[in-house]
Specification:
Elements (H helix, E strand, L loop, with lengths): L6 E7 L5 H11 L3 E4 H8 L2 E5 L4 E4 L1 H15 L1 E5 L11 E6 L2 H10 L4 H12 L2 H9 L5 E5 L5 H15 L6
Parallel strand pairs: 1-5, 1-6, 2-5, 6-7
Antiparallel strand pairs: 3-4
Helix pairs in contact: 1-7, 4-5
Bound molecules: adenosine-5'-diphosphate and magnesium ion.
């Protein structure tokens, strides 16, 4: 694996689909730097406020977009994890993690999420909102949906690595 070939990956998906688990493992396997969008937003104060209904911060796109553009361009090998932000022409590959709603509900119940937040996320998954947001912002050729429910995180990482091998082989050289 060449540490010199640039590779910028974006892992997104509804809450509970496994973004953090998959990205943490994958960044080790591919020698990428892990960057969590929510952590960055909180650290830098890139938010407009708090959405009580969604129980999440409202990201200030005007602040975060130029910051990330500069930062990601400098980093070269990075994996950003989070919801969709309008960052065009930056990522080599965008993975939308998917999860069967029965599995997703169980995961969110285990996290002790309130029922309305669980239902909001289930609805988002049924409507495949993250994928449709992604194709609105990015070139659809670079967006791939991967189910992370039946099999382990390791299997999901293997599937992503085989996509990288097919389309971005220099990253693994
Ligand atoms: N492939 C998988 N098989 C079983 N459990 C998983 C899998 N992927 C993630 N999980 C579990 O699902 C929960 C949500 O995963 P997490 O990575 O926190 O999702 P997200 O970051 O998208 O909210 C965690 O408890 C995690 O351990
Ligand atoms: Mg997470």
């Amino acid at each position: 694996m060449s540490p010199h070939s640039p590779f910028r990956l974006y892992i997104t998906g509804v809450t509970g689909t496994g973004k953090t688990s998959v990205a943490k493992k994958l960044t080790k396997l591919l020698s990428l730097e892990y960057l969590d969008l929510n952590t960055l937003v909180l650290e830098k104060g890139f938010y407009l406020g708090y959405d009580i209904n969604r129980d999440s911060v409202i990201i200030d796109d005007d602040l975060i977009t130029p910051y990330l553009e500069t930062m990601i361009t400098k980093k070269r090998r990075i994996c950003l994890v989070g919801g969709i932000i309008p960052l065009k022409n930056v990522f080599d590959l965008i993975i939308v993690l998917r999860c069967h709603v029965d599995v997703l509900r169980q995961r969110l119940i285990s996290r002790n999420y309130p029922e309305d937040k669980i239902e909001a996320n289930i609805e988002a998954e049924i409507m495949n909102i993250v994928y449709y947001e992604a194709i609105e912002f990015f070139s659809d050729q670079n967006i791939i949906e991967i189910y992370n429910d039946k099999y382990s995180v390791d299997v999901t990482c293997d599937q992503i690595i085989s996509i990288v091998r097919q389309h971005h082989s220099s990253v693994l050289e």
